[in-house]
Amino acid sequence: MLVDVHCHVDLYPDLEDVITRAKRFGVKGIVAVSMDIKSMEEILKIQNQYSNYIFASLGLHPEACSKISEKDLIKALDLIKNNSEKLVAVGEIGLDHYFVKNREFYPWQEKIFREMLDLSQKLGLPIILHTKGAEKVVFKILGEYDFKAVLIHWYTGPRDLIEIGIKRGYYFSITPAIAYSKKVQYLAERVSLEYLLTESDGPVEYNKIRGEPKDCLAIVKKIAEIKGHGEDRIKNKLFENAISLFNLKTQIS
Ligand SMILES: [Zn+2]
Fold first, then answer.
1. C-alpha torsion sign, points 113, 117, 120, 122
2. For the CA atoms of 144, 146, 149, 155, what is the dihedral angle to 10 degrees?
3. What's the CA-to-centroid distance between 23 and ligand 1, angstroms?
4. Which of 30, 32, 103, 208 is the most buried (most CB within 10 A)?
5. Rg, C-alpha atoms of the chain
6. Which helix (H) or strand (E) holds 232?
């Protein structure tokens, strides 16, 4: 039993096939994350279509900041507020200082991020975070809040921050990059099973192969190898983690 806790489902032209394959590989649910207003609206529709299988997480992605207007931010916050009962999290939100090279956008990124954090805290929803190249700043900002349910997606930042994340009880989700990335392998080794999850971040490509929720099975196999535990034990524990983090008990069978 697997859950893909971070997938851009609205970006697959062949979503139906992707889901069929995911089910065949034992994936019991997918958390759909958004990038911008368009994908927020799209994800709400998709969630309706695949209820009890695709779960919505809405937020504005830091890489989209240059195309987000003040008006969009207000609209996004309203979309989250008005649909909060249907959401399992707020995300993908955070900061990006790696793909976004133009520093002029950093204060705007941070403003969007803080608005999203304030709202998630008010609604009591977990947050799904993007931290690429801005890990230090994200951890510093999070230190000003008191979130109980924090999921850091595809972490590749400094090792000392992993220790802070562990102390604060953050969850970390592992992508298919675990097949080749030493940083991801280290993360899977260092973080205890209680705080690990699987994600495809699909349709992002890994070694030129498109990521899909079905890849969560290969991720579990690799974690089992790294941790030296049986595959079933890893699967069950990570499944439990996803259920408790996103409160999916009554929705996933
Ligand atoms: Zn993503």
1. negative
2. 20
3. 21
4. 30
5. 17
6. helix 231-246
Total domain count, the chain = 1
Question: In this structure, is residue 251 part of a structural domain?
Answer: no
Cα of 92 vs centre of ligand 1, distance in Å, is: 6
Domain ranges, residue 14:
2-246
83 within some domain = yes
Helix (H) or strand (E) run with residue 189 in it: helix 182-190
Say whether 165 sits in a helix, a strand or coil.
helix
Q: Which two tokens stand for residue 4?
A: 């893909």
CA of 133 to the centre of ligand 1 (A): 14
Pairing of strands 205-206, 209-210: antiparallel
Confidence bin at 250 (pLDDT 50/70/90): confident
For strands 87-94 and 27-33, give the pairing: unpaired
The answer to whether residue 252 is domain-embedded is no
In the reported structure, the alpha carbon of residue 8 is separated from the centroid of ligand 1 by a whole-number distance in angstroms of 6
Distance between CA atoms of 48 and 98, rounded to whole angstroms?
34
- Residue 153 CA, ligand 1 centroid: distance in Å: 8
- For the chain, the first-to-last Cα distance in angstroms comes to 10
Runs of H (alpha helix) within 124-158: 135-142
Burial category of 205 from C-beta neighbours within 10 Å (exposed 0-12, middle 13-18, buried 19 and up): exposed
CA angle 110, 116, 120 (to 5 degrees): 145
Summarize the confidence of residues 108-131 as an average pLDDT.
98
CATH number of the domain residue 117 falls in = 3.20.20.140
- Express each pLDDT in 83-103 by its tens digit: 999 999 999 999 999 999 999
Work out the average pLDDT over 162-181.
98
